Amino acid sequence: MQNAVKMKRLGTETAFAVGAQAAAWQAQGNKVYPFHLGDMNILTPENIRLATIEAMNAGKTGYCPNAGLFELRELLAEDCSRRRGVDYQVENVAIQPGGKPVIGKFLNNVLNPGEEVLYPNPGYPIYESMIDFLGGIAKPYTFTETGNGFRLELEKLEAQITDQTTVLIYNNYQNPMGVESSPEEMKYLAELAVKHDLWVLSDEAYYEIRYSGESESIAKYPGMYERTVILYTFSKKYAMTGWRLGAALGPAGIIDGIAQINTNDESCTNHFVQYGGIEALRGDQSGAEKILKILRQRRDVAVEILNQIKGVVCHKPETTFYLFPNVTAAMERKGFKTLEEFQQAALEETCVSFCTRSHFGRPLPGETENYLRLAYSGIEQEDIIEGLTRLKEWIEK
Predict the structure, then answer these.
(1) In 3D, which of 103, 172, 86 has the Cα closest to residue 138?
(2) Is the dihedral of CA 362, 366, 372, 375 positive or negative?
(3) Pick from 253, 385, 275, 376: which is nearest to 324 by CA?
(4) pLDDT by residue (tens digit) across 171-208?
(5) Pairing state of beta strands 372-375 and 322-323?
(6) Average pLDDT in the 231-250 region?
(7) N or C: which end of the chain has fewer CB within 10 A?
(8) With left for phi above 0 and alpha for psi between -120 and 50, is residue 201 left, alpha or beta?
(9) Which residues 6+ apart lie within 8 Å of 214 measured at CB?
(10) Could you state, in order of their start, the residue ranges of all structural domains in the chain?
(11) How many other CB atoms are found less than 10 A from the CB of residue 148?
(12) By CB neighbour count within 10 A (0-12 exposed, 13-18 middle, 19+ buried), where does 21 fall?
């Protein structure tokens, strides 16, 4: 007996593979400095934990509506409307067991086999995985490094659109690069989506992980409300990665379809965990503010050390908890030809574990620069300093 052929098209989140590599190295008695996985070692705020325990003890342990608790959907509609400048109601929200399921459920609703999907590359690897798995044609768009960050290659993106292109996946405040679009870029993409009648998945997982400025959603632009589904998650702002609580927000028709898939996939999102989400939105926000303060401190020290390393250039993003340093010159200095060799040697020589550009989508033809992705959400500031200092000494040796 054999698995279905389509299973060969299913990818994975390759950061977990790096995690397994790091765990094996640690099991040999080595201390590992974990920059590889965008998990968080910060405790979920106490008020959220207590509200969830209270709900569990009160018997909120059975099934609940497939689209989620009415109260949570109502609060989330209100919160997202206020923060994004749109008008969502309860019928525009379907609660999910995390943000990630929104990707596959959205594509299942709007994508037919053979149709094309534009997606960011480098980008979250599950986009590519789900497009391939569902029989779509994955068409990557990419970025150019500038003197102060990265910008979208908008003209090349538009040139890929054909009459078979039906979906644009857009991840502003982006994993792995920490990129955010300028207002001009976002306006351009919105106008492009309207012009070519594209569905848009706006992955806004890091919308509220920002250290200065204001976040903006593409959903608020003219013509976008009726074609955009927002991916929302509690994982980042409230340090709830393992709780698996998120939502899809968008036009009622497609949200109904996503909720119908909920019924088929998992029946409903964990009942008592949703009361944690209610408390997160309605309760004391000091815990979320503390999380952001910790992340900002970690970012600042990591960027400072990385930019002291000969052959490394690291931009300072104002969003997410990722850094995407260019290590092309450093690799040449050490004599490495591939990122895989560099990553393995760095782990063995310095115990610093990180992902590389190759873990975030198939490398594109013509790429000449080499990048790492470092997550600082799951490592203490002391270890950031210690680990990156070791990396610096090794590269400069």
Answers:
(1) 103
(2) negative
(3) 376
(4) 999 999 999 999 999 999 999 999 999 999 999 999 99
(5) antiparallel
(6) 97
(7) N
(8) beta
(9) none
(10) 5-43+287-396, 48-282
(11) 8
(12) middle
CATH number of 5-43+287-396: 3.90.1150.10
> Are 229 and 249 in contact, with CB atoms under 8 Å apart?
yes
Report yes or no: 127 and 169 within 8 Å, Cβ to Cβ: yes
- Secondary structure class of 326 (helix, strand, coil): strand
Q: Angle 120-122-128 (CA atoms, 0-180°, nearest 5)?
A: 60
137 pairs with which residues across the strands?
A: 116
Which CA distances in Å does 183 have to 140, 186, 197, 213?
22, 5, 21, 12
Alpha helices, DSSP H only, in the chain?
15-27, 46-57, 70-84, 101-110, 125-133, 154-159, 183-195, 252-265, 271-282, 286-306, 328-334, 339-350, 381-396
* CA 294 centroid distance within chain: 19
**Backbone region of residue 361 per phi and psi (left: phi > 0; alpha: psi in -120 to 50; beta: other values):** left
DSSP class of residue 358 equals G
Query: Is the separation of the CB atoms in 121 and 140 below 8 Å?
Result: yes
Specify whether the CB–CB gap between 104 and 10 falls below 8 A: no
Is the pLDDT confidence value at 16 over 90?
A: no
Report domain 48-282's class: alpha beta
Question: Contact, 231 vs 170, CB < 8 A?
Answer: no
Measured distance CA(130)–CA(345) in Å, rounded: 32
| Residue 301 binned pLDDT confidence (cut-offs 50, 70, 90) | very high
Measuring CA to CA, how many Å separate 190 from each of 117, 178, 255? Answer: 16, 21, 21
